[in-house]
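Entry 14. Ran structure prediction on the chain below.
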Amino acid sequence: MDILIKDVMLDNETKDIFIQDGRITEITEHSTKKADRVINGKNKVALPSFINGHTHAAMTLFRGYADDLPLKVWLEEKIWPLEAKLTEEDVYWGSKLACLEMIKNGVTVFNDMYWHWEATARAAYEMGIRGFLSGVFIDMFDEKKADKEIDENIRLFELSKKYEPYITFAFGPHAVYSVSRKSLEWIRDFAEKHNILVHMHLLETRDEIRFTEEKYGLKTVDFLDSIGLLSNRYIGCHGCWLDEYDCGILKKKGSKIVHMPVSNMKLAVGRVVPHFLFKNHQIQYCFGTDGCASNNHLDIIETIKFASLLAKFFIHEPTILPAREAFDLATKTAAEIFFLGAWEIKEGNSPDIILVDLSRPELTPCFDIYSNIVYASNGYVVDTVISMGRVVMEGRYVQGEEEIIRHARKTAESLITR
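Output, C-alpha cells:
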C-alpha cells in the first residue's frame, strides 16, 4: 500500500511524506504522487514509533489484580497460581488487548516473554505490529524438563516462520536461578548458529547475585560470560544491580540492557538502574514497560519520563538523560538493539511512523517537541500509527477495538473465578 501524509510537521518544517511498501521514498514540500491512502497531517508532527523492549503481553489480564504486595507474596501467592490457569485462548485475548494498548501508545514493536507462544504470535500478526517473541524457558535444574524445553523451543523456532515478517523468534531463558547451565549452553549454541536474540531477566534483585555466588562461585555477569552466553544478541532485562565491573564485561561483549523504571519502583527491587554507568561504558539500552501485573499499563512515554527523572535524581544532576536523548533511546537506539535498521524519518529508511496531535493542550506551547513528549504527555497524544507500511490507527481508532476490550474483560473475569 502507498501512503501519503500531507502537510505534517517534520523537523520543524511542513512536509509531505510518501511511503511505498513501508519505505519512505519521498519527503518534499508538495508531493504530486498518487497514493492508496492519504492522511491529513495538519497540526500533527511525524515521529518514529516507539519500541517496547520488555513485556509479558498477556499479563494485561492481571491488571490491578495483585497490587501493593511484597515481591515474593505478589509472585508466589498471586501471579504464579493465576498463570497456572491460563489457556491458549486466554493468552490470545490478553495479548490482543496488549497490542491494542501499545498501538494506542505509539508502540509498533515489542519484545515479549510469555507462555503459550503462538497465542501471542497470532495476536500481534493480526494487529499488524511486530513482536520479538520468546517462550518462558524454565527448567529449574531438572534434566527431563530441560529436554522438553529444548524440544519446544526448536518447534517454536520452526513455527515462527509462519508468522514472518511480523514475528521473530527469540530465546527467553527466564533467569540464572531458574535455568540450568546446560540449558544456557544449548541456547548459546543454537542462538549463535541461527542468529537468534537471547532475552533474559538480569539482576532485577540482589538475590540473583547471592544465587550465582553460592551455586557457581561467580558474580552473575561473570557466570554468563564464562559460559559464552553474552554477545551482541544478548538482551538483559532490568539490570538494577549491575555495577562498574559488570558494565565493563557487558560493553566488551556488546550486550544490551532494557530498563524498566516503573515496574522496578512499584515492586521495590531496592536499587535504581545505573544510567551513568551505561553512559560511561557506552552500553546500548532501551526502555520496557514490563507486564501489566507490575506496571499496570503499557504507556512507554510514561516509562521514558520516569527513566529520565530517576537518572537525574539518582546522581543529583539535572542535565543527565535529557529529553531528546531519552526519546532516541526508545526509538533509534531500540531499533539498533533489535537490528531493525535506521529508525529515522528520512528518504530510503523504513521506520514505523506515528503522528502526534499538536493541538492538545499539554503540547501547548511547543518550544521543543521532545521536551513536550517526554515530560508533558502520555501515549494519548498519539493520533495515527503506521506499522510495516500499514495504517493500524487513525484518529485514535483501531479497527475492532471494541470486540478486543469486550473479550479481554470477559476472559480476565473468568480467569479470576476459575
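The domain at 2-47+356-401 is CATH 2.30.40.10 (Urease, subunit C; domain 1). Will compare against last week's run tomorrow.
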